[in-house]
């Protein structure tokens, strides 16, 4: 079984969710080839995980160009499977390739297994309350949710093959003519190792500062559920959950978050969840490794001080 | 501008849907079927554009189940025309099959009307299966331009311009018409029908076709094998100390023990 | 009032023996226990709290209290508005919120057995999953069912389906003596002596502690929709109400609201549903109507008829909430009124009168005039279908004493007027400690003494919820 992995890059950097695809391919015993477009340093980084790389020297940061480049390469390679990390760009491109190649398309996959030579995909539906198990007849295009597979280990450098792709001019139908930034900060929740998130239970913008302070002390990123965002305590770039960012940090601290499915289904990939809530029946406690029942502002104040000590050790 | 919105009928998403332990299917008991929320945002966006600039707004549904009522609800909030393709063979449509059926239906409607759609809108994703594939696939089938996650659109110097939601704000994307555009949640909510529009929509006759009348149905290649319940994370240790200081130190001890910090 | 004793260390250890691990004292008693949602009627912390887990435990604690003349106050979620659950004389507070299990459904007799502390919201949702409706629909969805029963809570759907009283089949009660008894039966008729069940309903914890309930359910209506009708003025809006009945339209809910309160609520929930200007006309009052029917066609016909009535009565337009999401949004605004007022107001009092439906409009006009005379700001909404009005007095700039003084003056004008037009002092919130004097004024000495007599039969030592309903603490 041949798998082609599209590795998304940002400058010289390889996006974390993309390299997890290398582990995903291993999990189903497929023979993987990575595809890197436009950055040779990144191609080298990927090859250092021991997976052969096809490198194409095109600029393909928009949906139309990327679709065209991938289409040409997929036609040439004829893989059984084309894998993407579940980013905004690949969510647009994956179904387009699937339609052109008549491949089956499976989105937001969180698990893959192989039975009798067939791959079984697991993915959430209905806001994350139900999982679907899916099979594809023939070749497939798959987007994989970040954090579903581990980061690969370094290995002996594999080979990089260069390929050139010509893009017909009429392939570009949509062009970005302006970029408007309303939020200046950049929030990298998907890649965060530590996330401290606050919910309605924080009560006020002032108390929400405690969430930010603990995140700062732990060197983590601030997350939020919808109410603090609607109340203007923090910008929407911080929203975690099915309709915000799906995250998978090593440590997730949920402060004053009751734990609606919409939120919990977006954090279930976390390694360790700590929840602080005054309501001992809060649903968030059902998924927390460590549940602290109590006044969230008091606990946070104490925890900020104690964590400073831990960090100083 | 001639605008078409592809509407999917889904179980009402204001109720949390869970697996029925006996049938191993989503328990839809007492859950009404409604237009997919993102599709209703697309409709409101289109109707606002039509009210300001003229033109026409149509809605289209393809499916195995009766969706006349859902389509009438769309007519009651501003759509001028509705089309329905109903066929039992659509029951297990995958996204590619849905895109195919929509493309066939669109060609058929365009032929019958002798007029092409300039803009085809789809919701960003459906609230039931959340694949978000159909819009992009439809653009491929129709060989049109494609823009995702629109929060607004406009015509500037004869060009279609779409504001595409990003994490930091939005991109302004210029796209050749006709185009397929998927719509995210804009700042406003869809309107309520008034009694007048509601009653008028009840009397509407919706042209309905069978699959055979629009083209050929493709076998699904993506197959649902089963629904399962999400694995439960084991609930861990609970700290219920009255004193915040004691609670924090107990928590830190436990986190150290579990190597979380 | 009777003489009471203080809780001694010795008594506390007795209580702890009776309910091991469930008696809270000292710093463990949270501040919430000293008030309900209307702290203007006074606050007082209990000396001990029983975090009740069973009927037997409550019985044991009440028995000790009765023998030692310790006041006992039962408490649910504390969402009351007349001070009903405030332990005015200290003593022992019984928190029933941990008794929150839905015990069993009897789908052949259409009843459900619940513990007293089950939340209204939890029962409503659980029943709906089985296609059943628990019909009473008080605004506060996170109140305990026993609290609903103790105040005979009404709610939005009362106009069609009646109040809580109509849905109680049976209950288990701990009497002030500490004895456990059952009232009622799982039958739909009774002609078997005095109705003790009905006596308990609306007794506000003064006759005993309700610990379990058997509640009636009905099949959930298949099709539901709501109408939002903006009016230019309140008079036209209210005058529509009797016309529904005359047109044979039995609305499930029929709520009126004034512009100010709708705006406050929409600010609070951060979303706008109610149209403010239609065809150049500013809406100053709204009716929110819910209709239910057995089939889609039947519902659509009903919507059409109801809209005709509304438009003929002067509605500027009629909006139709015909999907669950739209209905939810429309009612979210209505359900948030109290929270929205609380969020924007420093001082608050409320009157929950009920007047004959044809008197709503003149009565509200009377109140508006009286408010102006007394220098009181008011915000009104209510259940137009059954004449139950919620008139809130609010202030952000008055001193508390001055506010209380003006409100008292206001009440002294408007309560007698309510009685004069054939109304009652409380439609659904109860009497608690806040409205005892207005109740006495309205029902008279003779009836008040009948109530006191009943109270004494149940509770000779007057330990249950002292200072509420028919005895004030000062007496």
UniProtKB/TrEMBL annotation, chain A:
<dbReference type="InterPro" id="IPR001308">
    <property type="entry name" value="ETF_a/FixB"/>
</dbReference>
<feature type="binding site">
    <location>
        <begin position="239"/>
        <end position="243"/>
    </location>
    <ligand>
        <name>FAD</name>
    </ligand>
</feature>
<dbReference type="GO" id="GO:0033539">
    <property type="term" value="P:fatty acid beta-oxidation using acyl-CoA dehydrogenase"/>
</dbReference>
<dbReference type="GO" id="GO:0050660">
    <property type="term" value="F:flavin adenine dinucleotide binding"/>
</dbReference>
<feature type="binding site">
    <location>
        <begin position="256"/>
        <end position="263"/>
    </location>
    <ligand>
        <name>FAD</name>
    </ligand>
</feature>
<keyword id="KW-0285">Flavoprotein</keyword>
<dbReference type="InterPro" id="IPR014730">
    <property type="entry name" value="ETF_a/b_N"/>
</dbReference>
<dbReference type="Pfam" id="PF01012">
    <property type="entry name" value="ETF"/>
</dbReference>
<feature type="binding site">
    <location>
        <begin position="225"/>
        <end position="226"/>
    </location>
    <ligand>
        <name>FAD</name>
    </ligand>
</feature>
<keyword id="KW-0274">FAD</keyword>
<protein>
    <submittedName>
        <fullName>Electron transfer flavoprotein alpha subunit apoprotein</fullName>
    </submittedName>
</protein>
<dbReference type="InterPro" id="IPR014731">
    <property type="entry name" value="ETF_asu_C"/>
</dbReference>
<dbReference type="InterPro" id="IPR014729">
    <property type="entry name" value="Rossmann-like_a/b/a_fold"/>
</dbReference>
<dbReference type="Pfam" id="PF00766">
    <property type="entry name" value="ETF_alpha"/>
</dbReference>
<dbReference type="InterPro" id="IPR029035">
    <property type="entry name" value="DHS-like_NAD/FAD-binding_dom"/>
</dbReference>
From TrEMBL, chain B:
<protein>
    <recommendedName>
        <fullName>Electron transfer flavoprotein small subunit</fullName>
    </recommendedName>
</protein>
<feature type="domain" description="Electron transfer flavoprotein alpha/beta-subunit N-terminal">
    <location>
        <begin position="23"/>
        <end position="218"/>
    </location>
</feature>
<dbReference type="InterPro" id="IPR014730">
    <property type="entry name" value="ETF_a/b_N"/>
</dbReference>
<dbReference type="Pfam" id="PF01012">
    <property type="entry name" value="ETF"/>
</dbReference>
<dbReference type="InterPro" id="IPR014729">
    <property type="entry name" value="Rossmann-like_a/b/a_fold"/>
</dbReference>
<dbReference type="GO" id="GO:0009055">
    <property type="term" value="F:electron transfer activity"/>
</dbReference>
<dbReference type="InterPro" id="IPR012255">
    <property type="entry name" value="ETF_b"/>
</dbReference>
TrEMBL record, chain C:
<dbReference type="InterPro" id="IPR016169">
    <property type="entry name" value="FAD-bd_PCMH_sub2"/>
</dbReference>
<dbReference type="InterPro" id="IPR004113">
    <property type="entry name" value="FAD-bd_oxidored_4_C"/>
</dbReference>
<dbReference type="InterPro" id="IPR016167">
    <property type="entry name" value="FAD-bd_PCMH_sub1"/>
</dbReference>
<dbReference type="Pfam" id="PF02913">
    <property type="entry name" value="FAD-oxidase_C"/>
</dbReference>
<dbReference type="GO" id="GO:0071949">
    <property type="term" value="F:FAD binding"/>
</dbReference>
<dbReference type="InterPro" id="IPR051914">
    <property type="entry name" value="FAD-linked_OxidoTrans_Type4"/>
</dbReference>
<protein>
    <submittedName>
        <fullName>Glycolate oxidase</fullName>
    </submittedName>
</protein>
<keyword id="KW-0285">Flavoprotein</keyword>
<feature type="domain" description="FAD-binding PCMH-type">
    <location>
        <begin position="41"/>
        <end position="220"/>
    </location>
</feature>
<dbReference type="InterPro" id="IPR036318">
    <property type="entry name" value="FAD-bd_PCMH-like_sf"/>
</dbReference>
<dbReference type="InterPro" id="IPR016166">
    <property type="entry name" value="FAD-bd_PCMH"/>
</dbReference>
<dbReference type="InterPro" id="IPR016171">
    <property type="entry name" value="Vanillyl_alc_oxidase_C-sub2"/>
</dbReference>
<keyword id="KW-0274">FAD</keyword>
<dbReference type="GO" id="GO:0016491">
    <property type="term" value="F:oxidoreductase activity"/>
</dbReference>
<dbReference type="InterPro" id="IPR016164">
    <property type="entry name" value="FAD-linked_Oxase-like_C"/>
</dbReference>
